[in-house]
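User: Fold this; tokens only.

Assistant: Input:
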Amino acid sequence: MLGGVLVVAVAVIAVAIAISAGGSSGGGLIKNQHTASQTYGQVNSLLAGIPQTGTTLGNPNAKLTMYYFGDLECPICRAFTLGIDGGGLSQFIKNDVRTGKVKIIYRSFCTATCNNSGQTVFNEQQVAAYAAGQQHLFWDYAELFYHEQGDETTHYVNATFLDGLAKQIPGLNLAKWQTDQKDPALLSQVEGDEQEASRLGLDGTPTLIAKGPTGKETEAAGGIPTYAALQQAIKQVT
């Protein structure tokens, strides 16, 4: 009997831990309101006060540009964006974008999503982020996506997931965001980004390309680009 009681007790504790952790369903979407608020707080802390226009982050008149070709379902993009395994984007935003030295322009390139879910899902998720950009909140949406990214093989990206991310952004007008997703210009923008990636012969994400004031371009070291790699790329085009 004692053994049976212990098994039940362990099971109850395990369930309690899962609930208190605010576990996710559908591939990473945070259901616990407190945890979701904390996550957006991290995003807001990184981005607050930095100008956003469409998919551009930073002073639009910055002389240096860093193009970021990414896929919101790409786990390597997640590591790069969130500073995991040496990923350098967060530090780059804090040190170089916030100070007005560099602006970052995000462009879509289907890699992980197309390996598993296909182009239709890719277009849907990227357009959802671009629609947030119509309210100068693209980077808030993209950062949240990376924070709550699921396993790309589980087909977790659907309307519920995309809506759930939008609802976590306090300044986002949901009705306008939903309407803007139907704007064909945003889909054309995503498709144009893909065409540019093909023209450049890119073969993976994230790909970071620095462009200087004279038009000179260079690609940052691949894999998960570190802050040092981003700095080196900027130095080469300055």
